Protein 1
Amino acid sequence: MIKKRLKTGIAFIILFVTIVAGGAGIYIYRELSSFVKTPLIKEAPEITFTVLRGQSLKTIAANLEKKGLISDSFYFLVYAKLQRAEKTLKAGEYTLSASKSPEEIFKILIKGQVKLYKITIQEGLTIKKIASLVEKNKMCNKEQFNALCYNSDFIKKLGFDDVPSLEGYLFPDTYFFSRHNTCEDIIIAMVGKFKSVFTPEWEAQADKLHFSIHEVVTLASIIEKETADDSERPLISSVFHNRLKKNMRLQSDPTAIYGLEDFSGKIRKKHIRAETPYNTYRIKGFPPGPIAGPGAASLRAALYPAKTNYLYFVSKDGLTHHFSETYAEHLRAIDLYLRR
């Protein structure tokens, strides 16, 4: 009789615990469901929230509550664990708001929708200037950026052989990077853009001209620095193509000043006479490599020059040029536009 009563008592206790546990479970489930779907505040400003590499889920949840983005770190932690996302939240800077539900915040973190910063690389910039711009935007140390652009092993990994540097291959465009992108990431993105622009059709045209891709980029960089007028680029290109066919020096001012530390902004005789590997007043053919980053218009012009007999050009107004077929005509143009 006593044993029977004991068994009945134990069964009652188990039933009671089960009911209580079940009730608590239902309560927690309802609270959790409400929590993940309900924003803390209906209208709230966006703030920057940072997840560090190696940061635990518990710490991330606590920081979300501390920043006033969610109401309860415990429920966020439980929800994340139920989603089996303990190790899948991405490090980086995020733009979050308390007006987003915890579920929305969780999805942003798990998808790695980090805050991105815009940087625009203009046509005609050198590696040195791009490195300074990248550092100014707090994306990468300029010394490290420069070093990578001249690192032969890194250059080969990017698919370039016998190229002294990445000068000319950091394609001018607008990019978006996070604070967690490395210098390597930034350079790879710029080179990747160049490769996507330089199509197989352009490679075939380079072969047809008997130019290497490196020579095309080199010529395009000179064209880029000679004019800012897209309509003139094929004409400028025709002058250089015609001079190359006649075994004449390219005689481009931008090549004479490339790499000079003492250049003040005005071409002088000492610059033209300087013995440098890039000075096309002193060397025949192409310089060792590009002198800047050419845009698509200059690359296209280098590959598809206008059909002309021009051998000379001179600046008319600092923006456009006068083109000549003969040296005598060129001298008259110099007298008209430069000596007047």
Protein 2
Amino acid sequence: MIVDCAHYRDGARQRAEPMDLYEAGTLCVEEPGFVWLGTFEPTVAELDEIQDTFGLHELAVEDAQNFHLRPKIERFDDVLFAVVRTARYDERTEEVDFGEISLFLGQHFAVTVRQGIGSDLHPARLRLEQRPELLRVGPVAVLWAVLDQVVDDYAPVVHALETDIEEVELAVFSGGTAPTERVYFLRREATDFYRAVHPLLGPLDGLERTSAEELQPYFRDVGDHLRLINEEVAAQRDLLTTVLEANIAQIAVQQNEVVRKMSGWGAILLVPTVVAAIYGMNFRHMPELGWGAGYPLAIALMLALAGGLYAYFKRSGWL
């Protein structure tokens, strides 16, 4: 689905209403400036039409249809192709939803293909339209606007994950236990987030050095924010590893506690059981059976032995 399509010339949008794909392709050839075509989850037929209109490489178009674990920036002929991962925290499910944005940057066009619900690019377009000096640079300015929007959207996800981690950390280190499945799930999310963030650092460093002079400080600013996000996500992943290990150790301690208590009570019950079993055999020649005090003495012996064992295990911390 085409969300917006505009022609930019001399640092300004030429008209407010979006244009269709045919007109956009014509303007790229006949008019100066560039066209920015924004799409959201386009169909295969729509991507084929976009490929024919702008002459995109088939491998790049195929990549735009599939999700990637890692972002990348590469060149196909004279078109720069970039893939970035988006992230959004869902408060209802307490999960991170990942998406993807693919960018095709030619000499006179920029095409963005957004997959997933994260990172709406309308604010990025408006922000770029307020900077005519960047629009004059050309389609690479669109790459800055998209990266700036995506990295800004990472910050709320980091803060939400931090809150979830603090909850499980408090549960574990306060003497209780957190569900191991929850801790493991959070660590997997932090790892996926790290894979979305960390690989962008290298390409951003390259953009800082090789882009137009007007864009270099803007790419540097995005890079600074991304490095901070990367450090926080890496720290979260390491912390979750520690929390997971501590939670497993806490569960093991509790299991050992249960085993000790069961063993202690088993030993206490075993002793009177043995005494009762011996007297229950009813041998004729056992002199104790003829004593009038034999039964009370047997009961007293069992209680004394059980009480002694209980006191011992209690003092040892087993009960």
